[in-house]
Fold:
Amino acid sequence: MTHEALVLVVDFGAQYAQLIARRVREAHVYSEIVPRSTPVADMLARGPDAIILSGGPASVHVDGAPSIDPAIYEAGVPLLGICYGAQLIARDLGGEVARTGQGEYGRTDLHVEGSSLLFAEQPVEQVVWMSHGDSITRAPAGFTVTARTDAVPVAAFEDRDRGIYAVQFHPEVRHTERGQEVLKAFLYDAAGCPPTWTNVSIIEHAVAEIRAQVGRERVICGLSGGVDSAVAAALVHKAVGDQLTCVFVDTGLLRRGEAEQVEQTFREQFEIDLVHVKAADRFLAALDDVIDPERKRKTIGELFIRVFEEAARDLGDARFLVQGTLYPDIVESGGGDNANIKSHHNVGGLPDDMQFELVEPLRNLFKDEVRAIGEELGLPEDIVWRQPFPGPGLAVRIVGTITRERIEILQHADAIVTEEIKRAGLYRDIWQSFAVLPAVRTVGVMGDDRTYAYPIVLRAVTSDDAMTADWARLPYDLLERISSRIINEVPGVNRVAYDITSKPPGTIEWE
Ligand code: XMP
Structure:
């Protein structure tokens, strides 16, 4: 990929590095994460406009503490050290990092001193976010101390002539009030990077790359209804138009209106060649009497592959397959080394022996960038902001055997949940919110009659990554509205419960 500017973020702690890379991109400068084991010569060979050393959990004092080849300080490339990165610079260039017992964690007052490029035109008193045990007690010779805190004499230092800057605090976290300004000062004023990484330029780069890779060959793309495959398809379509065919497998286990929306968006709005495989009967037949959650997954996964393969075979001559792999998948599995990418399948696990070359137009992008370019490409908000949805669909939200009647009840209840959560303005803040149908029946009374019908369990969780989650503290009046609408509008339901289990110990899904 060609860029007008490139910033490398050296990874001393993956979470920190990813957040820094995102913030740099939010400042409209392209950035990539590199593992700290990357030889400095290889980093320099890429011609970076700046290098950032990230924070990390280590102490420079422990044996085997991560370090970096000091050649980086002589390279003449503007350098910013953050937290652990700042301590490395201090130690490597002859300053002092000590175990003072004066660690700082969380909200801290910062006092800016003297004239500083990073804090130019900023208030002298600011709130920053800290997370460090060791402290820098002396800056290296030739450096100016530009900020301190009550506990620590060196909270930032810089040497403009050498182009080396360091901050003990975390400018990348939102709690640091002026963190983004500090990053921008480094990027624009210290490193001279132009702010040209925009949604439009991202799309232009991706389109050029796709054209170069695909040439005049045919491409297929599996659509799942989710945001990643949708944006990938829209990008590839923009790049190669009619050479693209999308395949959408309707398992009959989707949310209400999802299949229609895929049709409407891709066939009607984008005029993409779309193969809509209506396979609900096959999936329901295969799932007949299946109760065990893992068997449901396996059954659906295998049939999905078979149906997709059949559709691909019918198309005959496609050489390329589009995948919606995102940048974090690549970073987490080996830092940009292609060979190590974990297999990531958007559409339910396509087999490795399918003879396709992969097209991964989102492989350099974070999720928020994918959403932004989805909007820029004109995809509907409903697709761009859709909450995650499991590959096996509603099958793992019906606890027990799957029947058409139960699917219909669940789709109806789920649509009410989504509608009310959106109306309350909470849809984007909540990680997932949905209905579950346990196949048991309970007694109720409606009018003068006794009822004996299904319960619906409402599940709504907050989360950053689905690894851990907390149940969402939904307002009581919203819970009430959802409950009364489901019971009044969905035949076959007489009770609504709210799941107040976090993960762990629960999982997000019920199966
Ligand atoms: P759990 O239920 O394990 O879910 O807390 C974590 C996240 O993964 C989604 N999920 C799945 N996604 N195939 C998928 O593609 C699956 O079989 C599957 N099971 C769970 C779930 O919706 C949540 O976002």
